Amino acid sequence: MTELPNATRAPESDAQEDASVDESSPMGQHEHCVTDRPTPAGQGSTGEIIKLNDIDVYISKPADYPHSPSRLLLLLTGGTGIKSTNNQIQADMYASEGFLVLMPDMFGGETAPGGKEAYFADHSTSLLDQIKLKAVEVAKSFMIDMWLARVTEAKIMPILLKVIEAAHEQYPDAIKYGGGIYAAGYCVGGRYVLLLAKGSHDSGADEESGMVKKGPHIKAGALAHAASVTPDDFKDLQAPLSLVCVENDALFTDEVRKAGEDIMTRDNVEHEVQVYPGVPHGFAVTGQYQESAIMDAQVTAYEQMLKWLKEH
Where does the record place the region Disordered (predicted)? Predict the structure, then answer.
């Protein structure tokens, strides 16, 4: 495990006030995972949303595909889903590096409840308004907890397996060229990179037949600040993995991370783990931050994941 230099926060000005998040508040731990940061100026997405096995999928292709060979990458999002411009830009970035990217709607259209306007209090308002805003914040936190409780393996894995099945039918050239399917995941999607890397998984079974789907379903994976991960998710991994982690992350605790590292080392799973201090959960997803150190860490995290996928 490697810990990177601390990404210290720049002094905050009045204009930067809306970029700060109280991590101790009910919404603070969730905010970066369920809402988009401002889209970087001048950037937009270039792919399109198609249907694969009746699942909505954002697809982004290299400029010269199919005339030049490409490898196939599954990109699994956080709670903002496939219609997020930032997530689409993230997919386009991988496509520009030679990957045919499929970003499936893992949540069946039910993205996480969000809206940062509810998370940031205006300090010029009255005490009564502050109390009202805090009540809204608590309610939003409860709604997100309920949403996370519905984002289960039994719901998500069959969707991913349907997309993988369709990919084998429609893009066999890309899968053959890469020797398998690659995967990158952020926040909630990060956990499902782990599950797709397992040797077998009964939660991905057909709900009626109860049959176990044999894996691993990916050749290699990279994940950033995964959410809702347990130590059991690291058992029976059979694909090399790169992990981008946040120091003191309440959604992916140091204890879970260390347990995962121990399990991967014990099972001889090729892996790398980089811990980024001084950054919020969700920092690796495309989006604008006022603090230059966080933006630098975002670039470094992307380069870490891209390098791992290209080398495997």
Answer: 1-46
Overall average pLDDT of the 64-93 stretch: 94
* Tokens 């993205």 found at: 111
Residue 299's SS3 state is helix
The model's pTM: 0.81
Long-range own/partner contacts, residues 289-298 (CB < 8 A, 24 or more apart): 289/19, 289/37, 290/10, 290/12, 290/15, 290/16, 290/19, 291/7, 291/9, 291/10, 291/16, 291/19, 292/10, 293/7, 293/8, 293/9, 293/10, 294/7, 294/9, 296/7, 297/4, 297/7
Better-scored residue on pLDDT, 163 or 114: 163
User: What is the per-residue pLDDT across 158-179, written as a single tens digit (0 to 9) for each?
Assistant: 999 999 999 999 999 999 999 9
User: Which residues neighbour 271 within 8 Å (Cβ) at sequence distance 6 or greater?
Assistant: 240, 241, 242, 243, 261, 264, 265
Q: Quick one: CA dihedral 237, 242, 246, 251, positive or negative?
A: negative
Residue 213 backbone phi and psi in degrees, to 5: -90, 120
Q: State the Cα–Cα distance between residues 139 and 120, nearest whole angstrom.
A: 14
* Rounded Cα–Cα distance for residues 6 and 294 (Å): 10
On the question of pLDDT at 44 being above 50, the answer is yes
What's the mean pLDDT when you consider all of the chain?
82
Domains and CATH numbers, the chain: 2-311 (3.40.50.1820)
Alpha carbons 126 and 212: distance in angstroms, whole number: 57
Report the range of poorest mean pLDDT among 4-8, 226-230, 264-268: 4-8
